Amino acid sequence: MEWRVRTDNKRRRRSLVAVSAVLGGVLMLSACNGGGGDKPNASESSKSQADVDAAAAKDTSKARIAITPKDGATNVGLNDSANVAVSDGTLTKVELKTAEGAAVAGKIAADGKSWKPDAALKRSTKYALSATAKDADGREAHENASFTTVSPENSFIGSFVPDEGQTVGVGMPVSITFNKPIKDKKAVQAAISVSSSSGQEVVGHWFGAQRLDFRPEQYWQANSTVTLKLALEGVQGAPGVQGVQSKTVTFKIGRSQVSTVDTKTKKMTVTRDGAVLKTIPISAGSPENPTYNGQMVISEKFKETRMNGATVGFTDDDGKGEYDIKDVPHAMRLSTSGTFIHGNYWGADSIFGSVNTSHGCVGLNDAKGAGDPNQQAAWFYDNSLIGDVVTVVNSPDKTIAPDNGLNGWNMNWAEWKAGAAV
């Protein structure tokens, strides 16, 4: 009997231990849900969370960071589209990186209120931008965004002349060539301005869908300053194709030099600032290949260059160029189609001023190698600027087309203005 009583007691003790374990688990579970006692109802839980949120918000930085463009943006421009601004605080750190991790240099403004990259972004590139700012109490705020820049297929750019800081002649137009056809010429031209310190009215004229030139009615005023502003960032040039340029270019107009080539007298008169500077004997285009008439602007200068007749349509029966001179000295381009004013060392001295012998160019006496500064061609080359005007008169040929080179001066003012889109 005693053995059986002991056995019952042992079983009782085991049962009590099991019950205690279960009750302990219940108590532990209750504690994880908000402490001992009964579980709180939904309204009490919400109120508690609201209090926590309010307390957290109370300790949040007052600095508010704004990133442009918005997170996830695509077809973002390359110049002025990426920037950071902050209110009620100052920026302490901004990082812009490509998806591959390449950092993009940028600067926080002196007042700590804004940031922008130092240079234009790359096309078809994904970027990640992170910014940190502090408020007056030193509490930090953070903001992040990623975006992708516009692709070459969805963008257009314009290459232009003259270049920044260049000094050019009075005939130099601002000429912009776009890499894609422009459908909305009005929108594109409206985003471009050209002005002169002389106060001259400047008007744009479209030559086809990809070239836009600007000039005043008369030549630029000598010693003036011309400013070109391209605000093409985001401008829709065609459906789905936007501009990516935001640029200001300033160049100088030098002294006024206009040279007149008379193919009958076979002389060129160089006039600078209204006074005759020099008269030079020349040899222009032969009767079979006369030189164009008209006002032509020097667009390129080469101390020496190759001239091959095959490149401009002068070929023999075998298809080879009628001429191929690999070291033409002191050559200056007057047209896209191949008209130059250049030195000629292969012709006899006697032809200059007496016979027109060329394939359409204007030749001046010169020495092989372009090394003799005493030659007429060398003098003219050294005293000419890109943008100077060479006017050809009394030739049996027609007047050069306004778009054959930078030669829009051969169009009267009414015709020129009629080609503007705005």
Automatic annotation (TrEMBL):
One of its GO terms (cellular component) is extracellular region. SUPFAM superfamilies: L,D-transpeptidase catalytic domain-like. InterPro entries: Big_10, LD-transpeptidase, LD_TPept_cat_dom, Transpep_catalytic_dom. One of its GO terms (biological process) is regulation of cell shape. Keywords: Acyltransferase, Cell membrane, Cell shape, Cell wall biogenesis/degradation, Lipoprotein, Membrane, Palmitate, Peptidoglycan synthesis, Signal, Transferase. Residues 257-393 form the L,D-TPase catalytic domain. Residues 1-31 form the signal peptide. The active site is at H342, C361. GO terms for molecular function: acyltransferase activity; peptidoglycan L,D-transpeptidase activity. The keyword Protein biosynthesis does not apply. Pathway: Cell wall biogenesis; peptidoglycan biosynthesis; Glycan biosynthesis. Residues 35-60 are annotated as: Disordered. The keyword Membrane applies. This is L,D-TPase catalytic domain-containing protein. The lineage of its organism: Bacteria, Bacillati, Actinomycetota, Actinomycetes, Kitasatosporales.
